[in-house]
Amino acid sequence: MKFFRALTFCSSIFLVGCVSSLKDRVEPNKEFRVNAYWAQDTLAKANHAFRKVNRMTPVIHENLIIIGNAYDGLVAYDKETKYEKWRIPIDLGVEASAISVSDFLFIGSNNGKMYSIDLSKGVEVWAFDTKSEIVAEPLLQDGILYFVSGSQSLYALDASTGKQLWVHNRQETSNIMTVRGGSKPAFKDGLIYAGFSDGTLVALNAKTGTEQWEVSLNRNTRFRDIDASPVFDGDFIYINSYDDHLYCIAKSDGQIIWESPIGGFSTPLVTSEVVYVTSSRGEIAALDKKSGQEKWKYSSKNGILTDPLAYEDLIVTGESRGKLLFLQKDSGAIVNSFEPGRGVFSKPSLEGDRFYFISGEGNIYGLKAYYDTKSSIYYLK
């Protein structure tokens, strides 16, 4: 009897040891899941006219999610309940993405006005009229709001009052075919950098608007636009251009270091070793940051792609006539996607594992995206 108990005890140890050993050797399966938990029509009333472009990136501010559509203006939802908190009608709607600082939102509109909005009350603080549509995201730096208008003028306003401090005007571009868009300015070491539809990248003194240098990057005979925001990395600037090229240039004087034949209107994503960029031909590519050499490329058949967004070991981008795509960073392989209908022009906002974006139809979506890890051996699950 004692022998039998001892044998049972040893067998139990052996089995536990086997299971433990198996667990150590089993590589769990990682399945990436995307679940929609919220969808809401953002329009105040149904649209029965022609479709417009909805491309604003939602703004997450405390307990609010703020989104604008290209038809009737801005709306804020409670992040937890999803109930509408307030709505601000804006003639001709908004397409430009916005920035929020403290309790204030700054956003340009299709009617040519730049607005300051009190987020706690949902009311307009001030409006500055440029007489030309604004589809570019503004930049707030040291109390000054910088933005590019549709007339290719770079404005600097006092953010608290909306008073104009200075303006930089480019040459007349009416004889040049341009793409509807605009560059979000960038700030570095006292200078403001912005791209324009005449194909130039310009560096200006942030306080006075005095030009420091400019470089002509895009000499395309058809479209010359530089609608992407400059991205800084050390002594270099990475900028996308509508001549289907991505440029790496010196921050000090604009000298071109290298250029890659993959480019468009989107702002590139720069990491420690790789630059991720989407093109006007519906491609997304990973490029070596030092040389511009291609590491991988994925081509979509569903329109152009939005600005790339990093999430864990993935890159997220939307198709203008298709889905929101989730691709592996190291290979470009698609691990999952989400179909909202009518495409995605909006770069998503990310909070934890929650994504928010507006679809081409004007619906805002909330997605939860995560890895579901399971063992490949059923009895170890």
UniProtKB/TrEMBL annotation:
SUPFAM superfamilies reported in the protein's UniProt record:
Quinoprotein alcohol dehydrogenase-like
Q: Which keywords label this protein?
A: Lipoprotein
Q: Which SMART domains match?
A: PQQ (SM00564)
Q: Which Pfam families match?
A: PQQ_2
PROSITE patterns given in the database record: PROKAR_LIPOPROTEIN (PS51257)
Entry coiled-coil feature ranges: none
Domain called Pyrrolo-quinoline quinone repeat: residue spans: 101-298
The record, for PANTHER family, names: CELL SURFACE PROTEIN, OUTER MEMBRANE PROTEIN ASSEMBLY FACTOR BAMB
Could you tell me what this protein is called?
A: Putative lipoprotein
